[in-house]
Amino acid sequence: MYLKSSVKNTDLQQNIFEANKSNFNDLCIDVFKFQYQNNAVYKQYCDALKINDASINHITQIPFLPISFFKTHTIKTTIFNEEIVFESSGTTNSVNSRHYVKDLSIYSQSFNSTFKQFYGLPHNWCIIGLLPSYLERGNSSLVAMVDALIKQSNNPQSGFYLYDTQKLHQTILHNEIIQQPTLLIGVTYALLDFAQQYPMQLKYTTVIETGGMKGRREELTRQEVHQQLTNNLGVSNIHSEYGMTELLSQAYAIKDGVFYCPPWMKILLREEDDPFTIVDEVTQPISGLINIIDLANLYSCSFIATDDVGKLYSNNSFEVLGRKDNSDVRGCSLMVL
């Protein structure tokens, strides 16, 4: 058996968060080889594609695991007892993705470093989470992140608000009066409901939407969502967060829905008709299906083919345009476990 239960690549784990443009490709190759050798599902997928791991020398040659595998398989690199299992949301009859997390400290380092990059230190903010559907599930990676940031903010007004929107309104008004910088991070449908019920003119509050109607509202484009929120809340622009259960990293958009990644995360595009043709650098904007490299996912899988459609720009920023109609990635049938 090629798997070793004692394997823990501390060098890679340390190097991940030192990723930069010059060393990113080499780091990806190291992580790929580590995961190919120590992740049974990923190795079998690569072997089904007849990938020679020794011939991989660029990120566009690395196989990206279809995200649907997180619903049907246990995705682990090395053998371990997980600290936590994050689970995606879904309907009653749907199969949810499950992310087995070996080391929560990696997730903590990832989201804390990214938050600092985009927003500074948590203690400079009052942080409010409006994530009712996620809170009710109890095993959401988003809730875990926001909960940690709330605690680090050390502000008495920080916290989660389930359905007490009146109290949330009073808290935000209080913070506006005392000019307390406030970060309101919420699921899209809850933010829309709140903004419609309590229109305000905010000056000291930053609003971050995390996506998701969850069947509660008519689906809107991101531009339509942002327009409604800016109209009702009086802010100049709406921020966005792009993350998912299967990842340990997030990208943020400060305005116009254009996302930027932390240094250890990268977006690539693939063609729908040829999912193994992958583009990582462009000179002009192009659209395609989103592949994600998340080096923080060291003990899961760092190379994931999502079901999202995106647009990639020459500066490596990107937009998320929606979901593709058919959630099955061609080539998945190559592997039957």
Brief account:
The chain is an alpha/beta fold. It has helices at residues 10-16, 24-38, 40-48, 69-72, 104-119, 132-137, 141-153, 165-177, 188-197, 222-233, and strands at residues 65-66, 84-87, 98-101, 126-130, 159-160, 182-186, 205-209, 239-242, 251-253, 259-260, 265-270, 278-279, 286-294, 303-312, 318-323. The chain contains ten helices and 15 strands.
Provide an overview of this structure.
- It is a single chain.
- With 337 residues, the chain is an alpha/beta fold.
- It starts with 9 loop residues before the first helix and ends in a 14-residue tail after the last strand.
- The protein has one domain (1-337): ANL, N-terminal domain (Rossmann fold), CATH 3.40.50.
- The protein has ten helices and 15 strands.
- The strands form three sheets. It has a seven-stranded mixed β-sheet with strand order 5-4-6-7-8-9-10, with helices on both faces.
Q: Supply the CATH superfamily name.
A: ANL, N-terminal domain
- How would the global form be characterised? globular
How large is the radius of gyration?
Answer: 20 Å
Count of distinct structural domains: 1
Terminus-to-terminus distance: 17 Å
Helix content: 25-40%
Q: Give the amount of beta strand, in percent.
A: 15-25%
Under CATH, the topology can be stated as Rossmann fold
Main sheet: strands, sense, barrel: 7 strands, mixed
CATH architecture: 3-Layer(aba) Sandwich
